[in-house]
UniProtKB/TrEMBL annotation:
Reactions listed under catalytic activity: gibberellin A1 + 2-oxoglutarate + O2 = gibberellin A8 + succinate + CO2
Lineage: superkingdom: Eukaryota
Residues annotated as domain Fe2OG dioxygenase: 203-305
Entry EC number(s): 1.14.11.13
Family label: Belongs to the iron/ascorbate-dependent oxidoreductase family. GA2OX subfamily.
Source taxonomy: Eukaryota, Viridiplantae, Streptophyta, Embryophyta, Tracheophyta
Protein name, UniProt field: gibberellin 2beta-dioxygenase
UniProt-listed PROSITE patterns: FE2OG_OXY
Native species: Nelumbo nucifera
Enzyme class: oxidoreductase
Length: 350
């Protein structure tokens, strides 16, 4: 680690530099890439055109405005796979409370966060990448991966110190769930399905919140990501990020940066919606870049179905074979373990 005091590791930070150094030695002399598909991963453009959609249109008494807003959501999901939403009905006060609680919980000493099964916040803590085989598969970040069913469980929090976290997470999860289901209903209706479809598909047993922290990274290397390139294995994701920036998405074979908008939530389509829509909606590869000077925080809500839910195309001929969500998760985990990265939907092509 750098001797510069501003880069000195905090006792709460995970030992990411140790993991990086071990991976560097293990892969010495090897030629490695995150993907071998020839795309221009080093080219980054500013993304000033990412759609920003005012959800107020969905509640308008004007039918034309409702239809126009729904059409914007469909278009963004088809052309970008990513968009931002404003007037989403989640108060800035609630988001601010969540950010304060999030920072506090990540300031907990690392040894306590990583205390193992049944330990701190019921073993929901993750850091780095235990399956990485080379430096560019390492995510310079830590996270709490929390199923919605655990949020209201007092035993999950171990002691009274984190009961304020429980209450704020409960409110935020409820609010983000409403936004996610609203957007999913619009996208389902566009494909000819009832708006209430996702009330049947998705429940608290498989939806979850993920609290993310990206510590300052002292290594000046384009190989180091806060979060490695990936797609999301869900229907859709709602993200509240801070104003630091670093989120990038793949558009027309180029990485483009998503500029933070303090009034907006970021929404992206997941693999399950792409498969179910027969590739009408796009699950787009994205990543987070590490930052050498400041820490970054974000909170993500993942809209997922029950594990035995069968994912099939809404029409024939289908691009993908039918699969359950549990089958998809297991295949992703197997691929990551074997190759160091997710393969995803190409495994299920017909």
């Amino acid at each position: 680690m750098s001797t510069d005091p501003k880069f000195a590791p905090d006792s709460s930070d995970p030992p990411l530099l140790d993991q990086y150094t071990a991976l560097l030695h293990r892969s010495a002399g090897q030629v490695y890439t995150t993907r071998g598909d020839g795309r221009q991963h080093g080219v980054v453009e500013e993304c000033g055109l990412l759609p920003v959609i005012d959800l107020g249109g969905l509640w308008s008494n004007d039918g034309g405005k409702r239809q126009a807003c729904a059409a914007d959501i469909v278009r963004a999901s088809s052309e970008w796979g990513f968009f931002q939403v404003v007037n989403h009905n989640i108060s800035p006060q609630l988001l601010g409370e969540m950010r304060r609680e999030q920072v506090k919980v990540f300031e907990t000493p690392f040894q306590r966060k990583a205390s193992g099964h049944g330990g701190f916040l019921n073993d929901s803590y993750r850091w780095g990448n235990s399956t990485a085989t080379c430096p560019n598969q390492l995510s310079w970040s830590e996270a709490f991966h929390i199923p919605l069913t655990k949020i209201s469980d007092e035993a999950f929090y171990q002691d009274l110190t984190y009961l304020s976290l429980r209450e704020v997470m409960r409110k935020l999860a409820t609010a983000m769930s409403e936004v996610a289901r609203l957007l999913a209903s619009v996208l389902a209706e566009n494909l000819g399905h009832p708006r209430a479809l996702f009330d049947e598909y998705c429940n608290e047993n498989t939806c979850f919140l993920r609290l993310n922290h990206y510590p300052r990274c002292p290594i000046s290397s384009s190989d180091i990501h806060g979060l490695v390139p990936h797609t999301d294995s869900d229907f859709l994701t709602i993200l509240y990020q801070d104003q630091i920036g670093g989120l990038q998405l793949m558009k027309d074979s180029r990485w483009v940066s998503v500029q933070p908008n303090q009034d907006a939530l970021v929404v992206n389509i997941g693999d399950l919606f792409q498969a179910w829509s027969n590739n009408i909606y796009k699950s787009v590869e994205h990543k987070v870049m590490s930052n050498k000077k400041v820490d970054r925080y974000s909170i993500a809500y993942f809209l997922c179905p029950s594990y035995d839910s069968l994912i099939g195309s809404f029409k024939e001929p289908s691009v993908y074979r039918k699969f359950t969500f549990d089958e998809y998760r297991r295949q992703v985990q197997e691929d990551v373990k074997k190759t160091g990265h997710k393969v995803g939907l190409p495994r299920f092509l017909l």
